[in-house]
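QA checklist item 7 of 12: single-chain prediction sanity check.
[x] sequence parsed
[x] length recorded as 298
[x] structure emitted
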Amino acid sequence: METRISVIGGANVDLSATLNDAFIASDSNPGHIDIGYGGVARNIAHNLSLLGAQTQLLTVFGGDLFGGLLHDYCHQQGIDVHLSERESSVRTGVYLCINNHGGEMIAAVADTEAIRAITPEWLAKRSGEINQSEFIVADTNITEDTIRYLLENVTVPLFIDGVSTTKAHRVMNALRKCKLPYLHTLKLNLKEALAVTDSATYAEAAQRLLDAGVAHVYITLGGEGVYCRNAAEEWLFPALPGDVVNTTGAGDAFLAGVVYAHAKGIEFPKTAQYGLMAARATLMSPKAVNPDIANILL
């Protein structure tokens, strides 16, 4: 697949702790800790690169040791980082996650200070190359103003991942401020979708997202699958069976699968099935990105 895709947003060092037994609050819990490389945008870019896309990542690496390691790792994985930047005055993003003994996340902390450097002005200097892509993907680690800049200035299909309930509001706020609000695709999980739309059900949330200017809505429902909707149709696809090893990165893989399907010319809503396959591949891997994802999807 020779598709060129630009991915904009967070790149982090991941610290993932998984407990051996049930979690005990206010105590030291036995378990094991893995160190890896993540960030929503970086994970999406990595998945797309593994799937054969010409992927460029636009992010900011700190000037510290983690920043150098993260930059070099992206390059080693075939991700083009020439539009990214190392900034000595900021610390590299770190994502700290604690999983229960079944691999499900209990809590997480994300330090994404470096991403604040991705401003509208920062992107404007790179807009020519960005708009030469066939697709653009962004996460909501970037600011509301930067999301609005993308909504108003990109000339190719834009896909956005909501990241969290707090950060997903940035998309809605940015859409409200656009003169002609339009977003090709928005992926949210159920909690995010209900929060940003003040809805009681995923169907109600999807309708409100369509009314706000989103053309294609994907609401992931964990073990229940995914609900997807556009102006013409709605579908509920069940989750695919598989042993869950680690939930970190599954949502990122889902959106990467959706973008990959669009690049192959797959029509909505079948794109969601590729998202589910990519998510399952990640759920079955101890890493945030399954290095064998291509063997599963291709």
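[x] summary fact logged: The mean pLDDT is 95.
[ ] second reviewer sign-off
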